[in-house]
């Protein structure tokens, strides 16, 4: 019985730790035109990264209809760099699209944190 109780406590602590970090939030985004319908997108993300088991692992650029226009994979945790900004070049945004939404993802919760919508400079 004591071992079962200890196992339940340990599981609860692990779950609480995963929840404590919360979802990845996009704080800001900047879009700079780099060519014909091509853009460099810089995104600032905040997440309470806890190491390799729970960290912000991606952000992406979405058209208003939800089409993914670009994805930046984050290959490692940023525990000591919060918030952090990373860029993605060569994102093709068709002329008909006047604004995009940026969303982030973390390795435990997936998507669901704060997003930012930004006007596309023409």
Q: What features would you highlight for this structure?
A:
Immunoglobulin-like, five-stranded antiparallel beta sheet, three-stranded antiparallel beta sheet, 46% strand, elongated, signal
Walk me through this protein's architecture.
The chain contains one helix and eight strands; from the N terminus they run αββββββββ. With 122 residues, the protein is an alpha+beta fold. The chain has a single domain (2-119), classed as Immunoglobulins (Immunoglobulin-like), CATH 2.60.40.10. Strands 3, 4, 6, 7 and 8 form a five-stranded antiparallel sheet that branches. The longest helix is centred in the N-terminal third of the chain and has 20 residues, at 2-21. The model is unreliable at 3-19 (pLDDT under 50). Residues 1-21 form the signal peptide. Keywords: Signal.
Secondary structure blueprint with pairings:
Blueprint: H1 2-21, E1 25-35, E2 38-46, E3 56-62, E4 68-73, E5 84-92, E6 99-106, E7 110-111, E8 116-119
Antiparallel strand pairs: 1-2, 2-5, 3-4, 3-6, 6-7, 6-8
Compose a concise summary of this entry.
By secondary structure, the protein is α+β, with helices and mostly antiparallel strands. 16% of the residues lie in helices and 46% in strands.
């Amino acid at each position: 019985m004591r071992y079962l109780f200890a196992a339940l406590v340990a599981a609860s602590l692990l779950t609480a730790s995963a929840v404590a970090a919360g979802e990845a939030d996009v704080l800001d985004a900047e879009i700079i035109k780099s060519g014909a319908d091509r853009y460099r997108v810089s995104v600032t993300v905040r997440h309470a990264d806890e190491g390799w088991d729970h960290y912000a692992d991606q952000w992406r650029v979405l058209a208003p209809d939800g089409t993914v226009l670009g994805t930046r994979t984050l290959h490692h945790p940023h525990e000591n760099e919060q918030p952090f900004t990373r860029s993605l070049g060569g994102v093709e945004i068709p002329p008909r699209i006047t604004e995009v939404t940026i969303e982030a993802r973390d390795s435990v919760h997936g998507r669901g944190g704060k997003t930012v919508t930004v006007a596309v400079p023409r």
